[in-house]
Design goal:
By secondary structure, this protein is of the alpha+beta class. Helix content is 28%, strand content 30%. The chain is built from eight helices and 19 strands. The strands form five sheets. A five-stranded antiparallel sheet has the order 1-16-13-19-10. A four-stranded antiparallel sheet has the order 2-9-4-7. It has a four-stranded antiparallel sheet with strand order 3-8-5-6, with no helix packed on it.
């Protein structure tokens, strides 16, 4: 069948952090938040994060004001902060081969960032950075970065697992297999009217709705179209594509209700690579296997 509605609501487990893992949040003016977010969206460390994660990172950044000539940190010091320059400029100098002479290696202006290595690794500072004018920076501690990424990654996995556990053909998966599949699911967004798949096209992807709504439309042999289902969060479609390359039985479109439609999906080749064929998984329960194939007749 084209789509199957969920039989029960998926529940997202809450991840509790220890007290020592609590991270401080710092208030900022809306325009300051926007500037920081724009920088993070372009930075290699943060651009792969979801918007919610980048917003948490922004909240965890504290304001640092430097007078002209004031040092942010010295070469050789232990580093544990990443910096975004919001106002002014910061020049970084390096002493090479034990020399007392400082060589200018870079000047960071508004929108510039430095200290990347410090939130990835526990490494000494490679240069001395000092303000060349009165400057305003925003600093992110390494601990906050790691906690945010770890916490949101775990929460995302648990939420996706809870959605997958409602899928009938996955009932025979073990917990560690659900974790593998959750990590393999990719996400894509669709706006109102966007087509996810068309009736008659050969499909190779399985979809679950993470957020938003979609409509399923089927055309009869005379070309008359009829809506056969409204899909919302937790509903899924395209499970037959995990078995074989078969034509889609209907067209699925984003409706625009409840905002942007966000879908989680996995390709058949990816599924087979990490878990083996869905047919072999179904065979773990022969009764369920027979029931599934009977439903396809």
């Amino acid at each position: 069948k084209l789509a199957r509605a969920k039989k029960r609501k998926a529940v997202c487990s809450e991840v509790a952090l220890d007290d020592q893992d609590e991270i401080a949040e710092f208030e900022k003016a809306p325009d300051a938040k926007l500037r920081i977010l724009q920088v993070l969206q372009e930075h290699f460390l943060f651009r792969h994060l979801e918007q919610e994660q980048r917003e948490l990172v922004t909240k965890a950044m504290s304001k640092v004001v430097l007078k002209r000539g004031e040092i942010a940190f010295k070469q050789g010091e232990d580093g544990d902060h990443f910096y975004v320059v919001d106002k002014g400029s910061v020049a970084c100098f390096e002493r090479r081969d034990g020399s007392e002479h400082e060589t200018l290696v870079h000047t960071y202006n508004p929108g510039g960032t430095f200290g990347d290595l410090s939130i990835m690794y526990n490494t000494p500072r490679a240069a001395t950075c000092r303000a060349t004018t009165e400057s305003r920076l925003y600093a992110l501690p390494r601990k906050a970065f790691k906690v945010i990424v770890m916490k949101t990654t775990i929460e995302k996995r648990l939420h996706i697992k809870s959605l997958l556990q409602n899928v009938e053909i996955f009932k025979e998966l073990k917990d560690h297999e659900f974790s593998k599949l959750a990590d393999a699911m990719q996400e894509e967004a669709y706006e109102e009217g966007d087509v996810i798949c068309r009736q008659g096209d050969v499909g190779s992807s399985f979809f679950i709705i993470k957020q938003g709504t979609a409509t399923c439309i089927q055309a009869d042999p005379h070309g008359n179209q009829q809506e056969v289902a409204q899909l919302t969060t937790g509903d899924y479609f395209g499970e037959n594509a995990l078995l074989a390359s078969k034509p889609r039985q209907g067209t699925v479109k984003a409706t625009g209700k409840n905002g942007t439609l966000k879908l989680l999906y996995v390709e058949r080749t990816t599924f087979n690579r990490i878990l083996g064929s869905i047919e072999d998984i179904l065979r773990r329960n022969q009764a369920a296997y027979n029931k599934f194939w009977a439903a396809q007749i």
